[in-house]
Amino acid sequence: MPGRWDKIDKVLQDAFFVTGNRFKLEEVEAVLGKMRHVDLDLPELQELEPRKVVIAKAQAALNQGYSPVLIEDTSLSLVALNGLPGPLIKWFLKALGSEGVYQLAATRNDCRAEVRTIFGLALGPQSFIYGEGIVAGEVVPPRGSGFGWDSIFQPTGSSKTMGEMSKEEKALFSMRVKALHDLRNQLERFYQGQKHGQKEPPKG
User: Fold this and answer.
1) Cα–Cα distances in angstroms (integers) from residue 160 to residues 79, 163, 203, in the given order
2) Which pTM value belongs to this model?
3) 3-class DSSP assignment, residue 116
4) Do 47 and 53 contact (CB within 8 A), yes or no?
5) 3-state secondary structure (DSSP) of residue 129
6) What angle separates helix 22-32 from helix 6-14, to the nearest 10 degrees?
7) Is the pLDDT of residue 200 over 70?
8) Would you state the pLDDT for residue 6?
9) Is-contact 175 135, C-beta < 8 A?
10) Looking at the predicted structure, is the pLDDT value of residue 190 above 60?
11) CA 195, CA 63: separation in Å to the nearest integer?
12) Tens of pLDDT, residues 98-153
């Protein structure tokens, strides 16, 4: 809807998007436009609840003088492992590689998986707004390229892994794009609430 997101996108563009991953930056800028981004060495909280990971990173960035801050965390959860590795996927990939993560599910005869992105916009130390995007699918033997686990995750409704998709195809299945749209909606709700005297961000 032309013009609807102008104010919202300006707020997000003015935030410091903390990432050292150019692929994530490209995907975010494809939705929001040019971002202010910074590559910071932030502590990686070993936690299964993604929002706690996002909050810890945001607090660390705020402590370094960056405000407001936009933080992203993406996880991959295997049904066969009761939701693991979740936010710990980075370390699973480092230890096992993509093929090894796939084998974890395959040896248990259940390759169902879910990928989840959470964006946290920290307007201040105690003021957070979240956007969440979830995509269901399955892990398969590696096909294609991409980054992270792209080559082993095949979304429901697609015959391709994310590693085989073009940027345009990937955007249709992207949990990151879904999360950005949700973040926009939550931020819009927050501003609407302010008009009616609401002082705290919505618990999105």
Assistant:
1) 20, 8, 35
2) 0.88
3) strand
4) yes
5) strand
6) 150
7) no
8) 81
9) yes
10) yes
11) 30
12) 999 999 999 999 999 999 999 999 988 888 999 999 999 999 999 998 788 999 99
Number of residues that this document lists for the chain: 204
CA 161, 162, 164, 166 dihedral sign is positive
pLDDT (tens digit per residue) in 159-185: 999 999 998 999 999 999 999 999 999
What the block records as the tokens of 55 is 């909050």
Torsion over CA of 58, 26, 34 and 132, rounded to 10 degrees? -50
Nearest to 161 by CA among 101, 81, 86, 92: 101
How far are the Cα atoms of 15, 16, 40, 51, 68 from residue 63, in angstroms, in the given order? 15, 13, 12, 18, 11
Query: Nearest 5°: phi and psi at 13?
Result: -65, -30
Q: For residue range 43-91, list pLDDT tens digits in order.
A: 878 888 889 999 999 999 999 999 999 999 999 999 999 999 999 999 9
